[in-house]
Amino acid sequence: TSLKAHLGATLPEYMLPSAYVVLDSIPLTPNGKVDRRALAAMEVSIESSQVYQAPRDKTEQQLVEIWSTVLGLDAGQIGIQDNFFELGGHSLLATQLMSRVRSHFGVEVALKGLFERPTVAGLGCTGGIAIRAGI
Question: Residue 75 in 3-state DSSP?
Answer without folding.
Answer: helix
